[in-house]
Amino acid sequence: xxxxxxxxxxxxxxxxxxxxxxxxxxxxxxxxxxxxxxxxxxxxxxxxxxxxxxxxxxxxxxxxxxxxxxxxxxxxxxxxxxxxxxxxxxxxxxxxxxxxxxxxxxxxxxxxxxxxxxxxxxxxxxxxxxxxxxxxxxxxxxxxxxxxxxxxxxxxxxxxxxxxxxxxxxxxxxxxxxxxxxxxxxxxxxxxxxxxxxxxxxxxxxxxxxxxxxxxxxxxxxxxxxxxxxxxxxxxxxxxxxxxxxxxxxxxxxxxxxxxxxxxxxxxxxxxxxxxxxxxxxxxxxxxxxxxxxxxxxxxxxxxxxxxxxxxxxxxxxxxxxxxxxxxxxxxxxxxxxxxxxxxxxxxxxxxxxxxxxxxxxxxxxxxxxxxxxxxxxxxxxxxxxxxxxxxxxxxxxxxxxxxxxxxxxxxxxxxxxxxxxxxxxxxxxxxxxxxxxxxxxxxxxxxxxxxxxxxxxxxxxxxxxxxxxxxxxxxxxxxxxxxxxxxxxxxxxxxxxxxxxxxxxxxxxxxxxxxxxxxxxxxxxxxxxxxxxxxxxxxxxxxxxxxxxxxxxxxxxxxxxxxxxxxxxxxxxxxxxxxxxxxxxxxxxxxxxxxxxxxxxxxxxxxxxxxxxxxxxxxxxxxxxxxxxxxxxxxxxxxxxxxxxxxxxxxxxxxxxxxxxxxxxxxxxxxxxxxxxxxxxxxxxxxxxxxxxxxxxxxxxxxxxxxxxxxxxxxxxxxxxxxxxxxxxxxxxxxxxxxxxxxxxxxxxxxxxxxxxxxxxxxxxxxxxxxxxxxxxxxxxxxxxxxxxxxxxxxxxxxxxxxxxxxxxxxxxxxxxxxxxxxxxxxxxxxxxxxxxxxxxxxxxxxxxxxxxxxxxxxxxxxxxxxxxxxxxxxxxxxxxxxxxxxxxxxxxxxxxxxx
Length: 901
Description:
Blueprint: E1 13-14, E2 23-33, E3 39-49, E4 58-61, E5 66-72, E6 75-76, E7 80-82, E8 85-88, E9 94-103, E10 113-117, E11 120-124, E12 143-153, E13 159-162, E14 165-171, E15 180-186, E16 191-192, E17 198-201, E18 204-211, E19 217-224, H1 233-250, E20 258-264, E21 271-272, E22 277-281, H2 294-309, E23 318-319, H3 325-343, H4 347-369, E24 381-382, H5 391-408, H6 410-424, E25 428-429, H7 431-440, H8 446-449, H9 451-454, H10 456-459, E26 465-473, E27 478-486, E28 501-508, E29 530-534, E30 538-544, E31 551-554, E32 563-566, H11 570-579, H12 583-603, H13 615-626, H14 632-639, H15 644-649, H16 656-673, H17 675-685, H18 695-718, H19 722-733, H20 737-749, H21 754-766, H22 770-781, H23 790-797, H24 808-819, H25 823-826, H26 832-845, H27 849-856, H28 869-881, H29 888-899
Parallel strand pairs: 2-12, 19-20, 20-22, 23-25, 26-32
Antiparallel strand pairs: 1-24, 2-3, 3-9, 4-8, 5-6, 5-9, 7-8, 10-11, 12-15, 12-16, 13-17, 14-15, 18-19, 21-22, 26-27, 27-30, 28-29, 28-31
Helix pairs in contact: 1-2, 2-3, 3-4, 3-5, 4-5, 5-6, 6-7, 11-12, 12-14, 14-18, 16-18, 17-18, 18-19, 18-20, 19-20, 21-22, 22-24, 26-27, 26-28, 27-29, 28-29
């Protein structure tokens, strides 16, 4: 129930107020009579009073339900409604509670609870959607055994699915049941309500029987609509790999007879880990080489792995309350990252995956940590929990788990995971419980020694900064690295205590060779990377036995989610870029050089036409492209300039148009200065043979696509017609979606006149493929803005017959592509982008508050903007906040944004 204060404002729920439930639910027996307009739900629960909590009424959560009957032990019972809660007084210590309700799934545009998508029933219950199905103790620490019977018209809904194992099915008998059938499912494991799921509709399945390492047989099924079955092979292979990997790496076997994935095109999230019945956005299931890019294949592998790994880290052991969300999500993101890296055949491919993960963290989570919605990995309060399914909870949470592994070692971490599940299987626990288990399994580790301090990562928001300085002493042949850590204030947390920070360090000589490492006072010399554990506000580390000043390679592998401030010279960065054996820091050196050039260009006079990139940088990039020892995927990452969003985060005051102008100038300079190299790169990488989404082939296609992009961009200034023509031909002849879309992107992003022809052809070919049309929309809405042309185009795209605001994927492909991912087009001097944003947030809020609240986050960083953007953005946020019937989802985002002024 949404609590409000005397002024009618929502009241925050606080972690410190947690209290155990007054009642437990042991078993739940649900019977559904499925009908789109009026679904009947009979809910029988065996309940008992919690003796550790003072006697009090039973309060059950509900939302938009029609209540028809309440029975206690088979007898009518008195009850009352308090807001959305059903309240029953004077209950015995143990009892059976029966509740009969109806709901209208066809009108459920929020896509939470039970809803209908393309004539098929689906559910989404995390975090608080089960209360939209029946009255319940809708909280994660109430875990029960579920039996579910689904009844429906067989012709319309031939497939009936729920959690667990199918124990009975057949035709319904008796008057009124003609043409109707049923299926009965029993889940043998206790679960909280948010993991409940049902699906009913016309679906087909790809099936695979496997034998696990422990000898148990399992049936794996991927359900989709008829016509999509040919796009499920990769999802099935990813699921098989996930099952095998989790058992091999962590000793965690599949625990059900069958495991099902079902895909739907109407879904607020990416996927949902309901026990044994994962429900997925089609985006993360459907793929074949004609319709999906290499990136799609990688995302499917990652998300299928993520949801499967939740079977243990989230389902078997869940979170006590929603403040502990990262207990399952941070751990499971870490597990899916490790899974994807372990599937890579070589070290370079692993490094590419790590760099991609860090890039997401730094471009999305670091700004969140610095904005009005900043919150700890374990938040202290919320108004709407859906707003805290964030990159902080997921990606930063994963970095905390990664630091634990660094501090105890890979084998030690695996021992910790084993202890965690042995200790807490079947329970709802906390982040503290997890950290304690990892430390207890490794009592001699730095994690165990520093555990209370390490847990500040869970309680303190913000991104720590490491200010490092290096001083070489030629007389003593020593190099002293001084490191000071700090963390800026965040909402509700003005001061921060020092963190525990594992810092991976190496030293190179002037020629780029790795130097031996020996700290002052040590008798032994080590080679390669050293992990130094920082725990004080300031520390000094002195390396001895050095004949010349070294080039420090600090924060190798991005060993902690921090910002490193070190005054590298250009020469030092060029040395690291050319030679560092740590791939992450090699890439990072190129990023630092590019960022430095961008910031200098932004600070220069607006009319200054001096090239942004200097000759040393251009030649360094040329060397990377020509280096036969480097993989294509790594080259593509190095040659990708820092994003406009990342550049903006390094500025105190942001002029978005200036940032856009300078970065576009940098792109144009790379295009023209390296023109002949781009031609060679394209020729060397354009042919990858029979399609395979493996890392090597994907990397070559990515680099060839980048080359086409730069060649078309160069054609803008040279008036060359050859490469745009070749690109159009490549688009027409491509044998897979990656090559086709890369060619289309090259024409669109360069603003070439041939783009219109290619876009029309693309739509004609794929007009019946919803996910491909999402790409078509997104590419146009996310294109580089030239003279303010993108916003009018987006408004036109919203009038396209294929556009639907009610479909989250389609809304994201157009509106989010502009407002959240195209700053140069969104932040307009005339404020039209902000007006558009406010109108869409309000419009979406009435349909789907979760999606609206996500869109509202696009202006989190408004207070950094230069004028006139700043005032116009604030006015737009205030306009949304002033709407009287705004959902609590959106209300929380916009009011926090305004408070963060």
